[in-house]
Amino acid sequence: LLYSAAIESGKFTAATTVIDSPIVYLDTEGGDWIPENYEGEYYGFVRLRRALEKSINVVSIRIADAIGIDTVINYYAKLLRFNDAEKKSRIPRNLSIALGSIEVSPFEMTRAYAIIANGGREVIPFAIRYIKNRQGEIIENREQEINSIIEEKTRNGTIQIIKPETAQVLISMMRSVVTSGTA
Question: Can you give the pLDDT at residue 51?
Fold first, then answer.
């Protein structure tokens, strides 16, 4: 989700290089936070595609710092479909959210990834398409209800959550994670 926020911000592309080197953040009480990569190694300048492939933590922190914590929080809320109250209560206001310190359900995460897979368009998950009675008549049609909701959102222009081009870049980058990265 962070990488899609970075790409949609216009400050980054899949080919943008970011320095992967040790960094120290000081807090207001005089303490420090030194984010580290899983293996403890640093790779110098790394393209975003490669950083996502290899799950390089320091690059993620630098991206979040560059686009701003408010941008990251707002973007997470948009993809996770959080309202304003959920955004405030569920997303910590610190750079650790770039590393996944936000608590979400599998349903919420799946829906966020489904939005990306759907070209950035809204996804309304449902499990039961329709229910028939013993005579074979449809007594409830959830799929039809969802299609009506989507049609309404399309008319109102609220169906597109992220830009289609952002979604396409992210899909390509996530494929790289599977073909040559940590997946």
Answer: 96
